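Hi D.,

Good news: the full-assembly prediction came through. Inputs first.
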Amino acid sequence: MSTMIKYEEKELKVVGTRPRRPDGVDKVTGRARYGADYKLPGQLIGKVLRSPHAHARIKSIDTSEAEALPGVKAVVTRDDFPDLAVEYAAAGELTINFHDVTRNMMAREKVLYDGHPVAAVAATCESIARAALKLIKVEYEVLPHVIDVVAAMQPDAPLLHEEQYTEGVKPRPEKPSNIAKRLEFKLGDVEAGFLLADVIIEREFNTKPVHQGYIEPQACLASYTEDGQAELWTSTQGHFVFRAQCAKLLQMDISKIRVTPTEIGGGFGGKNNIYNEPLAIALSRKSHRPVKMVMTREEVFRATGPTSGGNVKVKLGATKDGKITAAQAELSFQAGAYPGSSVSPASMCAFTRYDLQNVLVVGFDVTCNRPKVAAYRAPGAPIAVFGVESVIDEMAKKLGLDPIAFRLKNAARAGTQTYYGVKFGPIGYVETLEAARAHPHYSVPLGPNQGRGIATGFWFNIGNETSATLNINEDGTVTLMLGTIDVAGGSRAAMAMMVAEELGIAFDRVRPHIGDTSSLGFNFITAGSRGTFSSGMASVVAAREAIAKLRARVARIREVPLEAVVWQDGQARPAEASPHQFVPMSLADIAKVAGKTGGTIAGHAEINAQGAGPGFGTHIVDVEVDRQTGAIKILRYTVVQDVGRAIHPAYVEGQLQGGAVQGIGWALNEEYVYGADGILANPGFLDYRIPVASDLPFIDTVIVEVPNPNHPYGVRGCGEVPIIAPLAAIANAVENATGIRFCELPMSPPRVLHAMDKAAGKE
Amino acid sequence: MARHQVTATVNGDAVEFLCETGETLLEVLRDELNLTGTKEGCGTGDCGACSVTVDGRLVCSCLVLGVEAEGRSIETIEGMAVGADLHVLQRKFLEHDALQCGICMSGILIASRSLLERNPDPTESEVRFWLAGNLCRCTGYHKIVEAVLDAAREMRGA
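Then the structure:
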């Protein structure tokens, strides 16, 4: 059973305006409390000993000297955690396996990447904890390692998991492999489709792993009591899922763990997964003291999820008049140390912007000696779409068509059957293409060494389990308790706006809060652009339940039948033309007497929200290539996106701008660099270069609104789509400027310079 | 472990603290003085989240030792608003919706104030280069730059 609420076109007073965010003042005054800002009396500091090897068998771990160091109160290793069997669970867009989660949290038989935890200590201060790490003796048998995805797929590659046989291949392979899984999505007959094509283009693309790059390192604080209860404060995108995972990993009852989410300093998918949380609880259990653990930036890079690097092969066929006849792709994604990359959603997003008859997408999930990948904003889609939208651009050029016209000719619309299963309802892809074509940016004249690129993106958006509670306070104000994390986009404000709209009261009469795990029923992780869609729906359900109770209460107080009472403009009023007229009661009037007339009034929602609306975006970018340095400058950037309905337009603009800039970083500079030794060479912001203010122009935004028919306010979700298109849009612009087609990311100055020299015959 | 006694001024208040030789000003502010508004994003001077001023000079507090604060005047985000009156920059960041997660905010506000003290009429490009040492992963800097330029306008009375 799931919940969908039909969209209603109505006059809006709050939705669509731009009120101040409830968390704003705390964030500009330094009051907002993030993961590292919590402390408890008597707390210890926990630190993790990490593998210095890319791949090694652990022969022994001796913690005795560390335990003897004065000030050290607990040490934990693999021996402090139960081994867990293979068992899958949903965690954000990706699926986890507890057999692997417990090993990624604390290595058991082997270490599988530079930075893999092997032990953790809790001590009275950080310097003692660090000293203790140096006293732990780990004996390793170093094994050959493999970093690159194509290398890891070779039959003779060093093997991470001796028991891993490729799933999805028949018959079952006889030899184990780093290829954990093969998956396939198929529609029509691509071979027949290619026979109909006048032009066929085939290209191969490679991208590097990139990190979510949130500025707040993971941080948590745990307190375990002698009666077996645990409290945990942590910076997370999903406190309920963290609670469930900690319970499983530590073999505790879910009811005995209470997780309070702190303000989150960025996540982007990277805070969907537990890392230090179970270690902190285990250290607290062993030391009988609260334990705080904060990662360093180096630990964040070495041990928390980047997204996959990928190898993407694309083959596209089209007729002379610009109709795509067949589309084929093969995606090989690094999963890192354990299976479970984003290759599945990436496969589903590769060609979904187009209405196609013949499609074949094959994906491979490949383990290699890197940190286990995590979701990153529209997980996997940018990697696949970089290849596909590059080939789309090349095809348009070859056919002599305008890139937007070519896309429009093949665009997905309402009624399009996707190759991954669903048939689209109302979607706004065509509207974004048309708005982009009409935008002044599309016709700005370009100078020498300048080029313009177009690319588009699609993301599903999701719903899922969500709870909310709305309490009418004694003075008629409203407290709204939410269970999805405000991952920073301002969803708290958006939910309060929808509640204010429903109740017919001012925005500042509703105060939203994110509840801890004891205050609401289960909420799935805030991922997949589900926050404002699903929590918005839950808030509306809760508000409507409260309104029903308010009406019933007034009917009783005024001694009129229920149908004589309507809720309008924040008041219970007599229904028009009803014979039962009475003096209206405002929310404050009812609240004042609620206690004596039946008790306080609240609304609840415990729903499984479904019917999320697919999101589409079209990006235009102008670049200038410096022929002396190879540096690419972004001159102009425009994001056009269908968001269904922008509840708070400024926050939607913020999502479009921020997402596009993350994509710009991915395209131009960001990459994990490994030495031949399998050690990460750039675990810091100096050498892993995310975009800075001086790299960028203003990012123009155009919000297209094709309402989602399955949400009361038409919300689709908007956070993930904008990161998808920039990679290809920039590559297309660079091709336009230089005539060189870049199939490798990032397009960093040395690579661009090298390619230009090569093209000029200098090498 | 030997600890040093240090006397300094923080946001106008005289403070005294003890710190280890290797302890940074950032750690002192957060752990000894409970001023957690200043954030650690990297600990290596690359992200600017820990920006404060020392005797009016903009620094990454993770690159300054606690003992170096002796006799100095330090300003942090906690001292930016005066009573109930937010600083113009704080107000403009709210009006322009220039923040999302907010972890970079303290550093960006302190750095922006330093810019406007030196250059009351910066160009867009000057704002962008001045803030190039302050990483923000959420916003793409668009609304941040707008807010700083608008604050500058208001502070100039333009």
